[in-house]
Task: structure prediction
Amino acid sequence: MAIKKTGIRAQQADQTRARILQAAVKVFARDGYSGGRVDSISKVAESNDRMLYYYFGSKEQLFTCVLEHIYEQFNQAEGKLKLDLAAPAQALRELVAFIWNYYVKHPEFVAILSIENLHQGKHARQSSEMRRLSGEAVGVLRPIIEAGQAQGVFRQDIDLKHVYLMIASLCYFYNSNRHTLSSFLGEDLSNEGQQQDWLAFISDLVLRGVMPDSVSAEGFIN
Amino acid sequence: MAIKKTGIRAQQADQTRARILQAAVKVFARDGYSGGRVDSISKVAESNDRMLYYYFGSKEQLFTCVLEHIYEQFNQAEGKLKLDLAAPAQALRELVAFIWNYYVKHPEFVAILSIENLHQGKHARQSSEMRRLSGEAVGVLRPIIEAGQAQGVFRQDIDLKHVYLMIASLCYFYNSNRHTLSSFLGEDLSNEGQQQDWLAFISDLVLRGVMPDSVSAEGFIN
Amino acid sequence: MAIKKTGIRAQQADQTRARILQAAVKVFARDGYSGGRVDSISKVAESNDRMLYYYFGSKEQLFTCVLEHIYEQFNQAEGKLKLDLAAPAQALRELVAFIWNYYVKHPEFVAILSIENLHQGKHARQSSEMRRLSGEAVGVLRPIIEAGQAQGVFRQDIDLKHVYLMIASLCYFYNSNRHTLSSFLGEDLSNEGQQQDWLAFISDLVLRGVMPDSVSAEGFIN
Amino acid sequence: MAIKKTGIRAQQADQTRARILQAAVKVFARDGYSGGRVDSISKVAESNDRMLYYYFGSKEQLFTCVLEHIYEQFNQAEGKLKLDLAAPAQALRELVAFIWNYYVKHPEFVAILSIENLHQGKHARQSSEMRRLSGEAVGVLRPIIEAGQAQGVFRQDIDLKHVYLMIASLCYFYNSNRHTLSSFLGEDLSNEGQQQDWLAFISDLVLRGVMPDSVSAEGFIN
DNA sequence: AATGAATGAGGGTTCATTCAT
DNA sequence: TATGAATGAACCCTCATTCAT
Result:
């Protein structure tokens, strides 16, 4: 990896690998792990079964790579966020919006994470790459909270982990379970208006969650 | 179903059916839909493949029955809740606690719902029984909120659906994604202390979510 | 096994099992263990792959059954031998002739044994049935030798195992290696005349091997 | 081959070829022809699949080369034997001991020959090199027998081919089938004591096989 | 009501081999 | 000379399902 490959063949090889990986993301997200057929993946990738084993060893290892891949992509996107720590509440709102939008626009990210959890997180547990990637789950969140606390606009007794879970819950569940929810609630949660409303709601809610009791969420921001 | 069966043979038959259904809940929750083998189910049920087809027709129909079954169970449990509408905040806290505890104690409920969503809710959509069962998703929640609004302790501009989603999100996600979350956060979310902390946090948060801005959550309740 | 199966279905089932077993003998003998395709076997048996697994569990277990089967057949045939212990030399000649003829007429027996040895006898070692069947490898030979010793026509210092190995070697190798031998010796060992000559030779040789030094083999018999 | 290659590149090439050949001997002997994977061979040879095809064309041709190779090695070893034709019985004993020891020390030779016979000797038949190498299968044996006959210590009516087969049978079978034999006889034939006893036994037996009836085997030699 | 026997299609995986550089 | 990339066919085996009793 350190040494850059050159030559047309090597480049094509990288492309083949990449195509298979992307196809796997798509197929696993659509059909689950067991349901995701090796054959389907290689067809979507316009390659053949054998190459999948050539590059990834097995279906299981491929899934692990998929997991690493989607997480890396998420991390990259998150890394590009430019948040103004001088305005912690605003920064927090923007982070919530980012996460929400990422989940909405990347249903495969949500699906793959759900699949992995149905498998008790066994792939994530076995992957050292995953441990590296997840090292700073709260990495972006932490400075915001600390800045808010320093300014006195956030409560001092906040558990960072709780804030993280709160945001993730509110963004994830709506998307991961939108099908049964739409059935049960009798409303199409995929509708954009609904989505906007929900984002507004959780955005406020998160702020309420971190702010001192006497301070109004809306009031403060404006 | 409506007509009660009698006789030993009929009872045995019902027992066989019930054993298969419970085995299916267990196996699907553990292995997913594709991964859940008809064979495994009949073995766990101490029956044989053929009976599964005899009673349920197909794997797919069996899964639909499983879905209906777990939802019916949840509804029954929820129906037993005795909430004091005279104290809406307290009632809301109790509802949150109930849902949280139900998810914690019935991981198969959470798993099966996740599976169904990975399948785009197709079984739920096709089942009229499901539509009936889900008819009143917000049925328990509605009177609480209305009572709170009548008393002036809850905001008037609350969207019932948002409250429902908020509670469900905060209870569900922690459980459904606890494996990857434990990895990422570096803490075991299955730990009981962690669970208690989280319940306390979301319990407050939900109240903050429904109360007028100037009223403190803790303050009001106590 | 103890309870005799009845009914047409059960009989057909036994036949199916038997057909697969016989086909397996044939195919393994022809193509070796790795070379013997599950598919070929089920085709020869006029059945299908699935039944092979239904009855035998795996290719490996099927091979073990084949091993047991051919050995059982051999034992049965050997058991039918009626040897006159009053004439030990003659009895020994008849035993040699029987073994020789069995190997000639059952090349699959020879082949399967060779295959098993190329696999270091792992199937035989793991099969309790094989241990039972092989329990009396020298069972038929022993009384002959003891009778000969009692009559003073066989040497007293004979190692039963050596006699067994001598006979088996001389009968087996000619058949097991006839292809390369035919090439190397420039003569077709499958030719019946050659076979007769060899049988006569080894028949004498075996007698020479067990008789006291001063007694001529041919002389004594005639 | 006739023209000696020179230069470092050429030498390396020869070494690669030799490594592959030796690896093939090892792998085929261990796993059989079908079971012997091209991949395993190239790995053992610390080379790669492609080189195997570069040097040998195909798996089948490689096996043929293996066959030729092991036979050549045997011939070379046999050629180094210095036998005293003035003492034919002693010479015959030494030849038996040589063959026995060669088989014991070269189980791969025995294995590969067995494999080739399971394949009906097709590779040997197609190889002109094999025909050349096997040209004088009885080449070493013939002068011994003729010398013995001339001295009157061996029978006149001996079939050279029978003597060859007798020796080969008695040496080969014990080794080729030692796994099942050990199982069946309940004794470990790989044990050195057992081997020595057997060599003594067959050594005497072979002499008995070639000597006139009235002459004792042991008596004569000593 | 219950169950052994049977099946075709397809599961993940590996095979020997060839291409292109 | 040497090697990564690629392939189609076939491997052993298991799937959900149905038949016949």
About this structure: The domain at 1-57 of chain A is CATH 1.10.10.60 (Arc Repressor Mutant, subunit A).
